[in-house]
Amino acid sequence: MTQASSPTDTTSATSGRAPSACRPANHTAKIMIGPASAGHHHYRVTLTAPPGYEPCSLAGSPTDVRFYHHGDSLDGVSPGRYGPQHTVVHFGPGRPAHFDIQVPHSTDGTPADEAAFTLRTPDGVIPGESAAYGPLTVAVGTVVGPIQPGA
Questions:
Q1: What are phi and psi of 147, to 5 degrees?
Q2: C-alpha span between 140 and 61 (Å, rounded)
Q3: Would the pLDDT of 43 be above 60?
Q4: Partner of 122 for a Cys bridge, out of 46, 59, 78, 145, CB 3.0 to 4.6 A?
Q5: Burial (Cβ within 10 Å: 0-12, 13-18, ≥19) of residue 108
């Protein structure tokens, strides 16, 4: 069973500190085309948090990743994960983070304009669903890399 993230990662107003930047409502995410590699297209999903939110820790690839096109779910693509899953990344205002969506070159790609996902912490998941927007193409064999520091 997956456990929820620790209270330090999901700080609430009752603690006297600002809400966590990791909560889905407290950050934005944008999909941009990344540099291609042999046999793959890459898309970078960059997370940013505005001032006023508490920094938090993320780790590994997002889970429960789903793709949409004009609001319709693309049920045929269930991405896997790749890369190290335990590296901790500090995220918050002034400290963006990103992850990679790697898609095999294919003539059977499907256009999408949204990715929905659940962020992970070093010891669980962030409750709720984050979403990133921007044009991309997905296909069977799509994988999602771990969260990394920087835009």
A1: -60, 140
A2: 18
A3: yes
A4: 59
A5: exposed
- Tokens matching residue 31: 């999909």
In terms of pTM, does the model score above 0.90?
Answer: no
DSSP lists the bridge partners of residue 143 as: 80, 102
The DSSP H or E segment spanning 143 is strand 143-144
Quick: pLDDT tens for 86-126: 999 999 999 999 999 999 987 788 999 999 999 999 999 99
Residues 31 and 44: beta-carbon distance below 8 Å: yes
C-beta of residue 49 within 8 angstroms of C-beta of residue 27: yes
**HSE-CB for 12 with a 13 A CA cutoff:** 5
DSSP string, 31-82: EEEEEEETTEEEEEEEEE--TTSB-EEEES--EEEEEEETTEE-TT---EE-
User: Which amino acid makes up residue 49?
Assistant: A
CA distance 68 to 134: 11
Asked if residue 132 lies in contact with residue 68, where contact means CB atoms within 8 angstroms, the answer is: no
13 DSSP assignment: G
64: its two tokens: 């429960």
Identify whether the C-beta of residue 42 lies closer than 8 Å to the C-beta of residue 36: yes
